[in-house]
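Before relying on records like the one below, remember that each one covers exactly one chain. Contacts with other chains, cofactors or solvent are not represented anywhere in the record.
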Amino acid sequence: MDRRTAAHAPNLRPLLSAWGLVGLWCGLIWILSGDDFSATTTSSSLDLLLRWFVPDLSAESLETINNAIRKFMHLALYGVLGALAFRAGGISGWRIQTAAWVALALAGAMASADETRQSGEPNRSGSAADVLIDLAGASLAIGTGIWKRRTSASEPTDRA
């Protein structure tokens, strides 16, 4: 490779780092969605923590709060996945719309695979509602990313 070719060769490090983070985050989601992190496995720890803050919580309240936290985690984990994938698409040089659709498709595929897997686990159950919650989290993050990219592109560069 001569100097001219080397000077025009793309720097793959940011690209590999961005998509590597997406892969790592998918791996984390996959681990957290396994049987070891089911509601039956984690509820005792969460109940202990909640009872430390509010000692007189009823069993029904504990279950309601536990379920709400678990659904929020779906929203948050897939929000981060959507944001990471949208960012990786931008680093890849894709148009905003392409990056957004690919990020949403990736989140949908991951959510569907995750819930399908859970339907075969002894202490888990797959849920189409969870896929929708996952997609909502990804959509919120991607929408925020689109808004951020569009508003930062329209800001004047001279702030004097």
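DSSP finds six helices and no strands in the chain.
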